[in-house]
Design goal:
- By secondary structure, the protein is an alpha+beta fold.
- The chain has 13 helices and 20 strands.
- It folds into 3 domains: about 140 residues, Beta-Lactamase (2-Layer Sandwich); about 100 residues, 2-Layer Sandwich (Beta-Lactamase); about 190 residues, Heat Shock Protein 90 (2-Layer Sandwich), CATH 3.30.565.
- β9 and β10 form a beta hairpin.
- α10 packs antiparallel against α11 and α11 runs parallel beside α12.
Amino acid sequence: MGFALSDLATGITSTITLKEPLPDFPDATRRGEFLNALPAAIYMTDADGRITYFNEAAAALWGRRPKLNADLWCGSWRLFWPDGTPMPHDACPMAITLRERRAVRGGQAIAERPDGSRVPFMAFPTPLYDAAGAFVGAVNMLIDMSEHQRAEQVSHRLAAIIESSDDAIISKDLNGVIATWNKGAERLFGYLEQEAVGKPITMLIPEQHRDEETRILERIRSGERIDHFETIRRRKDGSLVSISLTVSPITDGLGRIVGASKIARDITEQKRREEQIGLLAREADHRTKNLLALAQATVHLTNGETAAELKSAIEGRLRALANAHTLLAQSRWAGADLRNLALEELSPYRAEDDGKDGSRAQIEGPSLMLEQQPAQAIALALHELTTNAVKYGALSVPSGRIALTWRRQSVNRLSLRWVETGGPQVVPPTRQGFGTRVVTRICEQLNGALKFDWRADGLICDIAIDI
């Protein structure tokens, strides 16, 4: 037999001429062993399409062993077109070659095995002629396309993922020249693909960060991967953006490193949130320390004749601080409304008609938001004044009344007046109690002034502080 197997494998030859009759070619056993060793599926037919030979790779592709000199055109159980519709056996590439006596290159079909599995393949049937030029049949080579199609599907899927990614995905060669540029890169950096591909990656790197690229390329050449490297890059409009960069080596088919892929994620918002969290943490720490220091001073200066009195005094004062803290927290530390502070302390003595008939406490003043320090100061001052009124002043008898008013003396100055009436006759104290000391100290810290007027018909207290 005079055909060249190299021609058969490459599909270059359009016809094959046999120098001897097919049944009598020499060294048949050796040639059969050689054909069985080939990974490609190879089989032959006579001029009528009956299969006269097939190798083991063909039997494996078909999932069956066709009956020699009986089965026609192809050993497949069933055939389908690439779109999945049934293909008649007499329409397969081998049948076309036999009918038209011409080679068919790369005809595609799907073979179904008896077990139901399917194999996509390409066929390369070639006519066979004897030494006299008579047409005697054809030889066909089938290439299993399963892995190729799977790889192609994976490639398409990866390409779709890359294009739809919110992250910038870029590849470059070992000279730092951009090779690919996805939509995420367009959105992040502002350059269109045609503006970026072929340009040096350094066009994105601010001058003060240029040395990073040299170090990155050195690490990539050594096969190292760089994970979550946080840095700064420059957009087309000149603005800077904080990014997290992951860089991986790209290798060719021989495993040689030929470039790098970069995934850049915009972390501007993340950085802003981290800064905000840090600021809030520092602010919370500052506020907490102030509150604890005030609570510590409250406990330290509180005294009472009995343990129960001491406990009650401490609880009341800490509750006043907690109320102020709650109001501040509810406003996200924008401030605590003075009216709400007063209501927290005096609500047990007020009726729903806002201090008119039936109420023992009147509250009147403009809406005013106090920051942490003045809010806590006023909360403690109101608590001390209320506690004193309940024990000794106007709120110690049913007929007593309280009037609390306030106004702004200036943009940053608050004036507050506490007036008691209808209570027992007032006797000026002979010593300064804790409440008076606390209110006095608070006023001093806030550049304030404090005045007690111990009138016989009731106490008047004027407080002025900076806010």
